[in-house]
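Lecture notes, part 5. Sequence design as translation. It can be helpful to think of inverse folding as translation between two languages: the language of shapes and the language of residues. The source text, in structure tokens, appears below.
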């Protein structure tokens, strides 16, 4: 099977001469959940933005497979660390945005938007404004908006980093449900070893800047995952393995 994402010897140097990434090669299969882990400043977010087409590589190539997605919509959706909601718009209007940009009226989009809000646990909050929501609820709105375009590839840049542990764990559980239900391919940047192990099928560990892939570890645990896995010895052992790989990556010379 052809890779959904194929990155070959990619590098990224910014105009100020900072070399963010060097010789990055990575493949992601369709339907895979892959976490990217590495020290601060190693280029994780730059890599994700390059896959999204928001940054152009200065060396190498990035290829995305042709996958079925919502007609007239982009094949990828990006969820940032901050919810980036329009503060003057209601929850409904924030989720409607990608559909409105695609030419769908409020009436045409109403059923789909309400279904998305139900799916992320926000049924009945369509008329609320972002200032009236908790941090976790704002992120749910952001994810609903990302799913509105019917993408096959979901790119997430530390979306739960600012949330408390209870909310973060709940959203991790829900994210896996949404990912499986929609058959998405997911590329997820995080600083948390625990989150990476819980969510992903495979963890990509990057070196200190300029970022390079120094390890890939498979999490051999079936889905769905639960608190039983979070408290198991196999989870603790996997977290230890990943932590060791991360420490080795931090010591890698650029």
């Amino acid at each position: 099977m052809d890779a959904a994402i194929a990155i070959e010897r990619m590098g990224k140097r910014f105009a100020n001469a900072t070399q963010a990434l060097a010789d990055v090669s990575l493949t992601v299969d369709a339907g895979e959940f892959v976490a990217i882990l590495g020290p601060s400043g190693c280029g994780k977010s730059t890599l994700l933005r390059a896959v999204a087409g928001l940054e152009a590589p200065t060396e190498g190539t990035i290829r995305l497979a042709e996958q079925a997605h919502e007609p007239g919509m982009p094949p990828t959706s990006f969820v940032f660390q901050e919810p980036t909601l329009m503060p003057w718009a209601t929850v409904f209007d924030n989720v409607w945005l990608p559909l409105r940009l695609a030419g769908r009226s409020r009436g045409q989009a109403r059923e789909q938007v309400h279904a998305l809000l139900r799916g992320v646990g926000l049924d009945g909050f369509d008329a609320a404004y972002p200032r009236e929501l908790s941090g976790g609820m704002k992120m749910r709105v952001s994810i609903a908006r990302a799913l509105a375009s019917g993408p096959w590839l979901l790119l997430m840049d530390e979306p739960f980093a600012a949330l408390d542990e209870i909310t973060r764990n709940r959203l991790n559980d829900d994210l896996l449900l949404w990912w499986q239900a929609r058959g998405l391919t997911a590329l997820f940047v995080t600083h948390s070893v625990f989150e990476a192990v819980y969510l992903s099928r495979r963890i990509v560990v990057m070196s200190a800047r300029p970022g390079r892939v120094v390890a890939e570890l498979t999490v051999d645990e079936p889905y769905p995952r639960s608190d039983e896995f979070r408290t198991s010895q196999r989870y603790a052992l996997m977290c230890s393995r990943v932590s060791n790989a991360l420490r080795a990556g931090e010591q890698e010379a650029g």
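The translated text above is only one of many valid answers, since several sequences can fold into similar shapes. The chain has two domains: 5-68+152-251, 89-150.
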